[in-house]
Specification:
Length: 364
């Protein structure tokens, strides 16, 4: 019997799973398109060469699961405007520093003297605020349900410490709303989703049931190891072939039906649902989280008004289409020429979870 908790990378088991996938799709007419929604899945697929191992009947495409990549350009412009305030320190995870805005980036602003600090957790930003009482410390809150509870915890910690100089510029997104938007896109055919693992540890398997029931699209919550991925692909392919649309859980050793209610309670204490703009997709109703009015003192948008320039997308960058799985990085004329990890034109080349960065590093 397959023991995925001890054999995640066993080549023999991988060969067995690939044979099972081959047998499952033998006789399937046409091509099924399966989307991995999570940026970590995208990296794993490229890193382990999984796409090349699959039968021709299965086409894998990448989706909008990289939080830095889906953050719209006007958010970067807003962060740049805040960074230009002389009394402000921007605290952020590393990837955001290099994402190009309309006319600048945080890296450029840092070179011009702005105070940008890379932190490893939102609580590091709270500690930074405590050490710099004469500065406003703004943490860039970018991410999905995996990171938002930690941002909520940081706001609660700042409140407990009586800090008045800590706030969050939020661009928090949620699943599975964009999956429904992509399923309903008439220009896109997605036959099934490999659902994100980290996000699902918080929201749980049951969060996908409305999507499955309303859109009749198969979903499999899948882990990150190569064997997890192959097993998830097999489960998804079987649903497609058998005409089923269910939520299945390949990653049951970690993801529970109801996820992590405690983390969600912390999140819901500080945040409430809102419409959100996704790069390439546009506004999706109820796909984001904003800081509740009770915590307005920790909301940089309300607390520190700034003039933000009119957003301008970079000509030629196809991040938006890549995030919808409509084109591959190699289809972009800037890939490997004008756009490289050293000089990224778009967010998909900046982020360590971006599809363009993955293809640049590992090839197709
Ligand atoms: Fe944008 Fe660069 Fe990717 Fe092209 S290769 S889509 S310019 S990030």
């Amino acid at each position: 019997e397959l023991n995925l908790t001890t054999a995640w990378r066993d080549p023999e088991v991988a060969r067995g799973l690939l044979a099972r996938i081959e047998r499952a799709v033998a006789g399937y007419r046409g091509e099924m398109t399966l989307m991995e929604v999570c940026g970590t899945h995208t990296m794993a697929i490229y890193q382990h060469g999984i796409r090349a191992l699959l039968p021709e009947a299965i086409r894998l495409i990448s989706g909008p699961g990289c939080p830095v990549c889906v953050t719209p350009v006007d958010y970067v412009d807003h962060a740049v405007a805040l960074a230009r305030r002389p009394d402000t320190i921007i605290a952020t995870f590393g990837d955001m520093v290099r994402v190009p805005g309309s006319s600048s980036s945080l890296l450029h602003e840092q070179a011009r003297g702005a105070q940008i600090r890379v932190v490893y957790s939102p609580l590091d930003a709270v500690a930074l605020a405590a050490r710099n009482p004469d500065k406003q410390v703004v943490f860039l809150g970018v991410g999905f349900e995996t990171t938002t509870p930690t941002v909520a915890g940081a706001i609660l910690a700042a409140e407990k410490q009586g800090l008045t100089n800590f706030s969050v510029l939020g661009s928090h997104k949620t699943m599975p709303a964009p999956m429904a938007a992509l399923t309903n896109d008439p220009e896109l055919q997605v036959d099934g989703y490999l659902c994100p693992a980290h996000v699902s540890t918080i929201i749980g398997v049951n969060a996908y049931r409305p999507l499955v029931e309303q859109c009749r699209v198969p979903c499999v919550v899948t882990g990150f190891e190569p064997l997890d991925m192959l097993r998830g692909i097999e489960m998804l392919a079987r649903q497609v072939i058998e005409g089923r649309a269910e939520v299945e859980n390949e990653y049951s050793r970690v993801v529970k039906p109801d996820g992590n209610p405690k983390a969600r309670r912390i999140l819901e204490t500080v945040f409430e649902p809102c419409d959100a703009t996704w790069r390439g997709i546009g506004i999706i109703p109820d796909s984001g989280l904003k800081i509740r009015a009770e915590y307005a003192d920790y909301d940089a948008i309300r607390k520190l008004p700034v003039n933000v320039e009119k957003p301008v997308e970079h000509t030629g960058c196809q991040c938006g289409e890549i995030l919808k799985g409509k084109v591959r990085p190699g289809d972009c004329p800037l890939f490997r020429t004008a756009c490289t990890p050293e000089n990224p034109v778009g967010a998909c080349m900046v982020s360590s979870e971006g599809t363009c960065a993955a293809e640049y590093k590992y090839g197709c």
